[in-house]
Amino acid sequence: MSYGDPNNPYGAPQGQPQQPGYGYPAAPPVQQPYGAAAPMTAMPGKVSAARTMLWVIVALQVIGVALFAFSAVAINKAKKDNSLPGLSDYPVGVMWAFVVLALAWLVWAAVMAAKFSTGGNGLRVTALVFGILSAVLGVYPFLVIVGIVHIVLGILIACFVGGADGKAWFNRARY
């Protein structure tokens, strides 16, 4: 195939050679490493919503810790006074164990929510596990409105953190 043939549709264009345009010359392309994307500066909306939901769980856990502690003290007092025989049958140690577990859940959620802006993929996996466990453990007190709220928040946290926006945020380049 010859590009010198004027009737060749695939040949070089005929006529005047292209003249450079007027004005400023084109800027050179930005050199980035292969596969590197522009750094993310703002947290995506779904990730920010998951962080807010973690803070809501923290607030619910504060209420839960207070209620469990109040119940443990009330049961202990009822056992000593023998004023309410039905209430004195509950074990006080189990109530204090619930206080400790609710407090541990509170601390876990608060630490994760505080680390969302700087955390990496390990925090993403931890938040996924937290969301799934919250949803599963919320099934037990399902009749209580708090259980339903924990189920919904746990599922949403797991979905938002496990999605594409969450993966992009927690795997972003940090400079």
From TrEMBL:
Residues 9-23 have a biased composition (Low complexity). The chain crosses the membrane at residues 53-75, 95-113, 125-143, 149-170. Residues 1-23 are annotated as: Disordered. Keywords: Membrane, Transmembrane, Transmembrane helix. This is Uncharacterized protein. It comes from Streptomyces misionensis.
